[in-house]
Amino acid sequence: MTNWQSANETALLSVQRKAMNDEFEVLFSRQAFPQGTAAALNALDDVGRIEKVLSVFRFDSRIQFINLTAHERPVQTDAELFSLLSLCQQIAAETEGAVDITSGCLWKVWGFAKRQGKFPEASELEKARQQTGYRFMELNAETRSVRFTKPGMELNLGCVGKGFALDTAAGKLREQAVDRFMFCGGLSSILTAGSDWKIGIAHPLLPGKRLRELGLSDIAVSTSGSQKQFFRHGSRRYSHLIDPRTGEPAEGVLSATVLAPTATLAELLSTAFFILGAEKAAEYCRLHSGISAILTIPAKKSGGFETVELMSGETFNGQETNIPRPL
Length: 327
Hints:
Number of helices: 8
Strand order of the largest sheet: 2-3-7-8-11-14-15-16
CATH topology of the domain at 67-148: T-fold
CATH class of the domain at 67-148: Mainly Alpha
CATH superfamily of the domain at 67-148: ApbE-like superfamily
Number of strands: 18
Structural class: alpha+beta
Shape: globular
């Protein structure tokens, strides 16, 4: 995705910082919120704090401690992390395991942990498949602890980390009465507060081109695609988005953009919909209010692509959903 300025603002201030191997950015009106710079810096500090908890690239992160220890004994977490793990497990169950944070071993065996994709040996792929499965992550709400019931399992929260950071760190903006902003986690995850924000969805086949433009108000959006991380083996192209159920990179979808009440949910579901495909994604949107999506899939005849729009058309928590329509 590419972010735009607000439709009704000409003087927006941007505060940026590198985190989670991406650029986080807060956009707000300096005139409306003179306290906005301090609030944005506090929010970006909080993104850094969350990265230290979730990153699998830090030996001292809480997730790495869980990866090293949870197969031996339950590991207690704080309320914030336990809530995230519980949501991830819930969405894994709702999407038939299409998005599964226990698939760290699969991510490694395909070489994407080092951004050097490779085709794995059959034996190492099968071993990684056996070490994957959200049902083997046991969560105890009473003690807020996590335990692996299979040895060798590893968590990887790459499918949710930026969205969770946006939702959590946005609290720092609201604490200082900044209630109209666009908070971006790179070009893939965006959280908006207030009305009249605009974004462009990147074209899945033409770099630098926009597929669609959307108007956003009080909603989050996330896009999953394989344009940047993939490799070729023989005549096939292999995406970094791996189907945890098969252990193979997902095929059949070019990009999946999801709009949801929170950035955490939008990011989880954009990965899930990319893997599930249009038919299953449509079923999810029909059964879960407040969720909509735009998927691009290969065309059956022309060799190009088709766009599929999935709208919930229902309510969220008793309120009318604010699902944007194409501009």
